[in-house]
Amino acid sequence: MKNEKRMVDAKPLFATSLRKLTDTRGRYDAIKVAQAIDWEQQEIAHFLGKDPSFISKNPVSPSFQDALAGLASLYGRLVELTGNDTAAAVAWLRTPIVALNNQSPKKLLLESRPDVVENLLREYESGLAL
């Protein structure tokens, strides 16, 4: 019963976290996402494969939405896993992890290897990783 309550309680946290990353139309904003995960504009531009000036001019471009949705989802899940501790979620992204060959999740995300980070996050969510 406690697990069921936790799952119900977690959904509003996830929705609240994601809402802070969007504009009034519900489009992810690259600048807001970058700020939330403590990335520089140049880093989010690299992640999106765009020039930083393009990000500045159109941070909610439709062409960014799939990539930003994946990154925002990952961040939201991290926030949930850390008990709504956004600083811990950001720190996890920067921390070299043995299971990732001593690379940080951030480094792998910037190298276009989100699947590796997703796999580790799924292990944490399932309780397999300690």
Can you describe what's shown?
This protein is an all-alpha fold and 130 residues long. It has one domain (2-126). It is built from 8 helices and no strands. The protein has helices spanning 2-19, 30-36, 41-48, 52-57, 65-81, 86-94, 105-110, 114-126. The relative contact order is 0.12.
In short:
By secondary structure, the protein is an all-alpha fold.
Major pleated sheet: none
Shape: globular
- Give the tally of β-strands: 0
User: How many distinct domains?
Assistant: 1
Unreliable residue runs: 1-10
Helix-strand category: mainly alpha
**Helical percent range?**
55-70%
Helix run count: 8
**DSSP strand content:** under 5%
Q: Any idea what the radius of gyration is?
A: 15 Å
Order of helices and strands: HHHHHHHH
CA distance, first residue to last residue: 24 Å
**Can you give the mean pLDDT?**
88
Topology summary:
Blueprint: H1 2-19, H2 30-36, H3 41-48, H4 52-57, H5 65-81, H6 86-94, H7 105-110, H8 114-126
Task: Name some characteristics of this structure.
single chain; 130 residues; mainly alpha; 8 helices; 65% helix; 0% strand; disordered N terminus
